[in-house]
Prior knowledge:
Rossmann fold
Amino acid sequence: MPEIRTGRQKYYNIFAYFYDLFVKIHSGRRGEETRKFLVDSTQIDNTNQARILDICCGTGSAALAFAERFPAALVIGYDFSRGMLRKAKQKAQKVLLVQGDASRLSFVDDSFDVVCCSHALYELKGRARTEALQEMKRVVKPDGKVMIMEHEVPRKPLVKILFHLRMLMMGSTDSREFLRQDLAPYKKLFPNVTLLHTPSGKSKLLICSIT
């Protein structure tokens, strides 16, 4: 793994100890509402033995929401951080956890009914992000869905400043440009892209399909 990715891996291994608290402070009740919106938007049959992959799953909150909503499904949480997966294992026992790089998924073609990446794709840089999207397209079934949830750029001035300060910490120009592109990076790969907004207006959901 490249040195910069190894450095970020170490960062997230440490961040894992504080991640859930950080999300709780940042999102409050909206976190649960946002996950519900994500899961409900899959529109798959609750009795269907679907295969669901949550890429960059972090501590497993979204993966667990999928597993609880679709108990007959096989839900896999995938992350490059051993620390994040260790925390996920403590609360997401219904989820199969796999360590790996999002730009090199360790699954065969057409494996999943749903591939999800929630509030994480923007943290990947340039080529790694493009490769991750290509991998999602490769492993999703022809009639499946790739679901990308990302932050909306805040409108309130103070919150907007804080948001961009966070972007600077993640990698200034690259992250900001990605967030401003809207549908462009997705339409390059997927024939059909639908944009939805969460009830709170804090996040956007892109549903991408091949057919």
